[in-house]
């Protein structure tokens, strides 16, 4: 179903995006207050996960190699001061302090953050430190309790209280928030306006919202990265969001239709009705963990397997917490040249233990490493293709098709058995060969087609065993009726002739079969059972023979006549074609 699109300010929904400030670094500073005023980076020489605001003044940012960040600080004369036993000691390390990533502590702080904001409405976690929250119900409730305040004021007060509660419960971790009507994209942009430890509300009138939005750099649009910013700026002269509207025609000509229209919608404040409630109920599409590796150890296979095992254990803990287990395992490798290699494998069953996940991921990692042949700076594990639980009592499409197939098979077999039992006078049941599927008489001990021995008991009919089933009813031969092209063709076996009759309401006539076998046995041919290839023109030798089979003279003559006469009805090919038409009907 397509989402309903409209201007964000026309919506009655209130959207909030809340983002923790320098999350990893804030946890480190909280646990070690001496780091508060020094340039701090969380990570290593391979890559920095985040940096505090002191380090950001010197150009240090996330996803930057640590040795580059250290050189930036060194060139700007930054000194790292640490207190030693003899007083203040100046350490010339480029002035940047590094702390290794400590994921368990960050996850514990993230859980406090998540548990707190989830009390304010349906929410969706975008990462450990960022959440989208629909606060519509809470805003309406606050406005009803205090009629002296508007919904705008109620939304602002509500978000302010939520931020204070997060700070209190997490022992001093601050967060910033953005508030907007009807559009999480606008709320995301607003969350960066008053960082750190602040909040901003997008103007609620259409004119005010557009004026604010069009003044923003295009880089602030959620979904526009550095590459897109460079292309739009250098190629089309688009620097601010408002330039997108001015140069919309050029944009649509230069970009793909979907990409161009997406940018125009974003610049006009047009939103699609993102349903956070549905996203929260459906759960994540995948669960993953990544780790930046030590530069000195990245070439060690033992170190890589150790990190991989830890990542698999963390992924399985998250899967158990969310009660979602997947079949697709993916390993991600990133080199120091920023080349990314991913290997996936879909298993037969869901992975429910860290050991099984590690075994599958280890094999994928070994394959990827053999292809890359370069040192690795980042390693990640992802589980996806979750099996969705079916509500109790609800059938799936697969159950329906399986039941229908089984029912159809039972009906077909029942019809075959009914025909055979009728022709045998109601005694015994026909059986189908397990090798060639030929339908045999109840008294046959082996298949008349492939001579495969029958599995199971055999019904006894006295001397009738060893001869073809009779076609005589009341002393005469029974006519064979064949439906073909709207006509009913009745075939009689009398000597070497084959006759055709037009459709008639009268009952088919019966004639005596005058053809006899050399061995004295009857050479009559029974009707083929439904969906089973008929064996026409074969007879069983009588008691004086060795039990072999041969084509009857009548059948041979009929086939010869059919080859010379275009109007003739070939017995074997026609029956096969008619059975195919029957199965189609």
TrEMBL record:
GO terms for cellular component: nucleus. It comes from the Eukaryota. Residues 15-225 form the UmuC domain. The keyword Transmembrane helix does not apply. Residues 559-585 have a biased composition (Acidic residues). The keyword Zinc-finger applies. It is an enzyme of class 2 (transferase). It catalyses: DNA(n) + a 2'-deoxyribonucleoside 5'-triphosphate = DNA(n+1) + diphosphate. Residues 426-456 form the RanBP2-type domain. This is DNA polymerase kappa.
């Amino acid at each position: 179903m397509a989402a309903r699109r409209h201007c964000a300010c026309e919506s009655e929904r209130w959207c909030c995006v809340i983002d923790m400030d320098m999350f990893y670094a804030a946890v480190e500073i909280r646990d070690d207050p001496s780091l508060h005023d020094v340039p701090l980076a969380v990570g290593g020489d391979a890559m920095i996960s985040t940096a505090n605001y002191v380090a950001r003044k010197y150009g240090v940012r996330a996803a930057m190699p640590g040795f580059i960040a250290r050189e930036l600080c060194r060139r700007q004369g930054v000194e790292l001061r640490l207190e030693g036993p003899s007083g203040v000691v100046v350490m010339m390390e480029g002035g940047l302090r590094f702390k290794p990533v400590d994921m368990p502590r960050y996850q514990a702080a993230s859980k406090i953050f998540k548990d707190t904001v989830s009390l304010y409405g349906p929410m969706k976690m975008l990462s450990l430190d960022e959440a989208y929250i629909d606060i519509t119900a809470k805003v309406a409730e606050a406005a009803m309790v205090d009629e002296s305040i508007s919904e705008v004021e109620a939304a602002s007060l509500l978000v302010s209280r939520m931020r204070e509660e997060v700070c209190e419960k997490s022992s001093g971790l601050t967060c910033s928030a953005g508030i907007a009507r009807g559009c999480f994209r606008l709320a995301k942009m607003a969350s960066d306006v008053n960082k750190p430890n602040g909040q901003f509300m997008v103007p609620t009138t259409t004119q005010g919202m557009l004026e604010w939005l069009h003044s923003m750099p295009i880089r602030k649009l959620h979904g526009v990265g550095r590459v897109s910013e460079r292309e739009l700026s250098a190629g089309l002269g688009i620097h601010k969001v408002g330039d997108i509207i001015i140069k919309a025609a050029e944009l649509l000509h230069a970009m793909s239709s979907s990409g161009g229209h997406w940018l125009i919608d974003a610049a006009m404040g047009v939103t699609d009705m993102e349903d956070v409630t549905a996203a929260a109920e459906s759960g994540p599409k995948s669960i993953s963990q990544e780790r930046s590796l030590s530069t000195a150890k990245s070439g060690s296979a033992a170190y890589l397997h150790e990190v991989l095992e830890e990542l698999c254990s963390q992924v399985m803990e998250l899967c158990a917490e969310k009660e979602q287990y997947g079949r697709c395992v993916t390993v991600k490798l990133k080199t120091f040249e920023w080349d990314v290699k991913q290997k996936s494998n879909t298993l037969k069953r869901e992975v429910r233990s860290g050991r099984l996940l590690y075994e599958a991921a280890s094999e994928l990692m070994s394959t990827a490493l053999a292809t890359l042949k370069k040192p690795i700076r980042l390693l990640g594990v992802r589980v996806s293709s979750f099996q969705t639980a079916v509500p109790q009592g609800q059938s799936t499409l697969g159950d329906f098709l399986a039941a229908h197939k089984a029912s159809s098979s039972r009906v077909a077999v029942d019809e075959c058995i009914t025909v055979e039992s009728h022709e045998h006078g109601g005694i015994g049941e026909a059986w189908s060969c397990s090798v060639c599927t030929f339908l045999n008489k109840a008294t046959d001990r082996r298949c008349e087609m492939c001579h495969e021995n029958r599995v199971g008991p055999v019904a006894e009919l006295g001397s009738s065993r060893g001869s073809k089933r009779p076609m005589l009813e009341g002393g005469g031969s029974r006519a064979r009726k064949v439906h073909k092209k709207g006509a009913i063709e009745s075939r009689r076996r009398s000597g070497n002739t084959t006759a055709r009759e037009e459709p008639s309401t009268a009952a088919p006539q019966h004639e005596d079969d005058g053809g006899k076998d050399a061995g004295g046995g009857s050479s009559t041919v029974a009707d083929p059972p439904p969906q089973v290839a008929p064996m026409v023109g074969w007879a069983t030798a009588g008691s004086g023979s060795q039990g072999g089979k041969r084509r009857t003279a009548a059948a041979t003559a009929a086939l010869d006549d059919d080859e010379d006469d275009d109007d003739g009805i070939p017995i074997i090919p026609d029956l096969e074609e008619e059975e195919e038409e029957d199965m189609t009907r």
